[in-house]
Design a protein that fits this description.
Elements lengths: L2 H9 L4 H11 L22 H12 L6 E5 L5 H10 L2 E6 L2 H13 L6 E5 L12 E7 L8 H11 E14 L23 H10 L2 E8 L1 H18 L13 H14 L2 E10 L1
Parallel strand pairs: 1-2, 1-4, 2-3, 4-5
Antiparallel strand pairs: 5-7, 6-7
Helix pairs in contact: 3-4, 6-7
Bound molecules: S-adenosylmethionine (SAM).
Length: 274
């Protein structure tokens, strides 16, 4: 199986939409009258979750007139978040068919389908004309993509000159092996974690200038501690990571352990197309 098929099959759970709707009902929400914040504990598949997207959205500062591409959009949490926080239009693209189907369904339930849409496809062959978008976002997707040179060239191609590109990936900052399963990969075969200097070099070679870079390790460790304390007090919530698979708490535990050790860090880079 090629890497993209392995990645998509690893994220495919089967019955995800039904599991989310059940958990929403159990948590006292009405699945027919959803606000995007009702989903915030399960629809942001990256360290720092809702809080990180909130900060990144403000830094990117897209306007109501902007059309933004969310590369590797998952079940659509960050795309809906950006559209609500900034008023922009967002198109998401993702390899995993089930995620795209769930993203479309949840977006319709949140009443955002006029501004947020999704399609299935690969970040390495983006199905869009050159210069289509005013901005782009990539949150925790690069770890599944070996060919980051093609990834960044494709994003640059579909951006207008001056367009901002928000990258937020887990990067290697220290020494040591990663334990698997990780939240993004069951084994090393689908995991391509690189150092910040590799991102900087490949972004520059693809026609981007980096405006800002932030290591988000401390921010995520603090949020992780707060979440563990809440679970110890109140138990595991119905609307929590287990929806994505019974082994998700173990996978999150693995990533938090190497984050504590300083082997990896979630790093934000804000780049501008030149
Ligand atoms: C860890 S999830 C992050 C999802 C979303 N960005 C978020 O933060 O909620 C990684 C996503 O990247 C997608 N993905 C991985 N490789 C891809 C590729 N080559 N092209 C498009 N999507 C890809 C996966 O299907 C998955 O939905």
């Amino acid at each position: 199986m090629d890497i993209e098929r392995q990645v998509a099959s690893q994220y495919t759970r089967g019955g995800l939409e039904g599991a989310i709707l059940d958990a929403l009902t159990k948590s006292g929400k009405d699945p027919d009258k959803l606000a995007n914040t009702d989903l915030s504990s399960i629809d942001e598949f990256h360290l720092g979750w809702y809080a990180e997207t909130d900060e990144l959205a403000r830094e990117l500062g897209f306007s109501r007139d902007s059309h933004v591409l969310d590369v590797g959009s998952g079940i659509g949490g960050p795309a809906r978040h950006l559209a609500v926080a900034l008023g922009c239009r967002v198109t998401g693209i993702d390899l995993t068919e089930e995620f795209v189907q769930v993203a479309v369904a949840l977006t319709r339930r949140c009443g955002l389908a006029d501004r947020v849409s999704f399609r299935q496809g690969s970040a390495l062959t983006l199905p869009f004309e050159g210069g289509t978008f005013d901005g782009a976002l990539l949150m925790h997707v690069g770890m599944n993509i070996a060919d980051k040179a093609t990834l960044f060239s494709e994003v640059r191609r579909v951006l207008k000159p001056g367009g901002r590109f928000g990258v937020y990936d887990i990067m290697q900052i220290g020494e040591g092996e990663l334990p698997y399963p990780m939240p993004w990969a069951m084994t090393q075969a689908t995991s391509f974690v690189e150092r910040p200097e590799t991102y900087r070099r490949l972004l520059a070679a693809s026609g981007f200038e980096i405006e800002k870079e932030r290591n988000r390790r401390d921010f995520v460790l603090t949020l992780g501690r707060e979440m563990r304390e809440k679970i110890a007090r109140e138990g595991m919530p119905a609307l929590g990571p287990r929806i994505l698979g019974a082994d998700m708490p173990e996978r999150i535990g693995n990533v938090m352990a190497v984050l504590e050790r300083g082997t990896i860090a979630p790093v934000e880079m804000i780049a501008r197309a030149i």
